[in-house]
Amino acid sequence: MNEILDYFEYVGNQFVGIGVIDIIDILLVALLFYWTFKFVRDRRAGKLLVGLVLLVAVLLLSELLEMRALNFILTNLFSIGLIAIIIVFQPELRSLLEKVGGESLKNFRGKLDSDTAATIRSAIGEICVAAESLSASKTGALIVFERSTKLGDHIRTGTIIDAVTSSFLLGNIFWNKAPLHDGAVIIRQGRVHAAGCFLPLSTNNEIVKELGTRHRAAIGMSENSDAVVLVVSEETGTISVVVDGVLKRGFTRQTLEEYLTPLLIGDDKNIAGRMKGKFFGKGGDKKDERK
């Protein structure tokens, strides 16, 4: 009985010794683990991480059971493990750092100025009109909205246009006999900045097979940046939007405009909440699709 009381007294003393800095430290570590888990959960890194954990478990087991040969091999393997992890996880680490930096810049940047917000709002309206027209004619389209992560590497693969966004311009670019129709259009601050751009394809093997190269490029772009990507299917005319690797399908002109506005301008966040329940909460194809 005295041992139990001593134990509870010891635990109580540990809690008494916790200060404000300790609480902040625990919260930061918890957030670090949470964001790491959230980032790798639906990516290729998740499977690699599971394999790494299994190797660590085997190493501990070999040491416990005195399996000298196996322990020797695994110990030497882990001696260069940090470099190997950096090499294997290089795409995921780069994406993580870009998104962390992008979120930090977004928080410091604050709200858009009125002129830029008005330009983006006008561009959203024109793009939604274009998307409706392209969907009706089953003309494929791929439009990338640049946000805090700069897309200069991808812009350099295309042709600089730097023009006012209009539905007629986008219709001409994606006309199937136009020289730039196969690439992506990149929208920067509400203007058509470049066209015919090449985007990285997603390496996620669990993407549904019915999605073609255009959709895989959209998912890959959103996995490697904070960009919002609009896709019009050439086969079905379905309008889709990809954010953070998650693809949502079945938009109309009105629902597309209501969905894009809070994402790109940042105001009226309640619209996004209402749309999530009203638009994506019902059946059909209006759902998240990672795989």
Descriptive report:
By secondary structure, the chain is α+β, with helices and mostly antiparallel strands. It is 57% helix and 13% strand. It has two domains: 108 residues, no CATH class; 176 residues, DNA integrity scanning protein, DisA, N-terminal domain (YojJ-like (1, 3-Layer(aba) Sandwich).
Kindly state the number of beta strands: 8
Task: Going across the biggest sheet, name each strand in turn.
Answer: 2-4-3-1-5-6-7-8
Please name the CATH architecture of the largest domain: 3-Layer(aba) Sandwich
Fourth-tier CATH superfamily name of the largest domain: DNA integrity scanning protein, DisA, N-terminal domain
In what range is the share of β-strand residues? 5-15%
CATH T-level fold name of the largest domain: YojJ-like (1
Structural class: alpha+beta
Mean pLDDT: 79
Helix % is 55-70%
Distance between the termini: 56 Å
Using the alpha-carbon principal axes, give the shape. Answer: elongated
Q: Indicate how many domains the architecture comprises.
A: 2
Query: Number of helical segments?
Result: 12
Order of helices and strands: HHHHHHHEHEHEEHEEEHHE
Specify Rg, calculated over alpha carbons: 24 Å
Low-confidence stretches: 268-291
Largest sheet: 8 strands, mixed
Short structural description:
By secondary structure, the protein is of the alpha+beta class. It contains 12 helices and 8 strands. An 8-stranded mixed sheet has the order 2-4-3-1-5-6-7-8, sandwiched between helices.
